[in-house]
Amino acid sequence: MNIQIDRLFFEYITNIQPETNEAGRVMEFKPQEMYDNEVDRLLHGYGEGPFCAFSIPHVNLEGVYVLLVNDRVYYVGECKDLDDQFNNGYGSISPEYCFIGGQPTSCRINAQLLQKLYQGADIKLLFHHTNNRKQIKEFIIERYKPEWNLHQHTTNGNSDTRSLEPFFIKTQGKYGPLYDYLEGYGQPYEYLTFEEINHLLQATLPHSSTQHHAWWANDRSHTQGRAWLDAGYRVKASYLGEYVVFEAL
Question: What pTM does this model have?
Answer without folding.
Answer: 0.65
